[in-house]
Amino acid sequence: xxxxxxTVCLLWLSLLSSxxxxxxxxxxxxxxxxxxxxxxxxxxxxxxxxxxLKRPVTIETAADYSFFLERTNHGRYDIIATSPYFGRLAQQxxxxxxxxxxxxxxxxxxxxxxxxxxxxxELRNKVISTSDRLANLTLSAHRYLLQAGFVPGKTIIIRPTxxxxxxxxxxxSGEASAAxxxxxxxxxxxxDMEKKVRILAxxxxxxxxxxxxxxxxxxxxxAQLEQQLLKFANNTPQGKAFSQELKHDGLKPVAEQDxxxxxxxxxxxxxxxx
Length: 274
Hints:
Strand content: 15-25%
Helix content: 40-55%
Largest sheet: 6 strands, mixed
CATH class of the largest domain: Alpha Beta
Radius of gyration: 20 Å
CATH superfamily of the largest domain: Periplasmic binding protein-like II
Distance between the termini: 51 Å
Strand order of the largest sheet: 2-1-3-10-4-11
Oligomer: single chain
């Protein structure tokens, strides 16, 4: 094939890819699990959105929380399923509008091995593993440990590992003495994992995962998406199964007080990103 023909073919494929991307509706999911696991968990929602919108819908995540935040800021995603602190930032600064949230609040856990620490005081000068330094669970644990008398980085080490799976593996291998995870994320690893760890402390609950839409979609479509999400999760067999698997227990509209409660943590997040 001549160089000229090859160039034309590559240009055609590039244009075709761009056209498809323009047609696609992108659901962005914060990378609290591996991309493969997230694609399985959110497939029912992707399929429902594609059916409702009558256009291709793709699921995308990112390599880490920082990259996901950057892509959100650039408007890469049409809808996001995002961590609460990222969601408040997306509302305030990134042109996204809250749609719905799970009925259940986010409940962070501090877990240890069955033969591990008997109380939080025994974690002094130990390592606690977590998924990502910008994860809401990490920030919640940071506040909790400060209130418990620890100084993160000095009298206790919080070590990001890249994913919840890595964090739990670090705990089970003995590289960490405790791990930070949510009730819902732990459930998604199955009953076998739940038997391998013991809950040492339940941290204060917060506003959970947020589903948000980019304002470029327009108020009419955003309102329709909110109603479609509520109907799917609360009134259809597929949606109820999806909601149960993610420990959402259903969806409801986001109240302004849900968002306002996140402001102190957003300040923590901004301080961490400086």
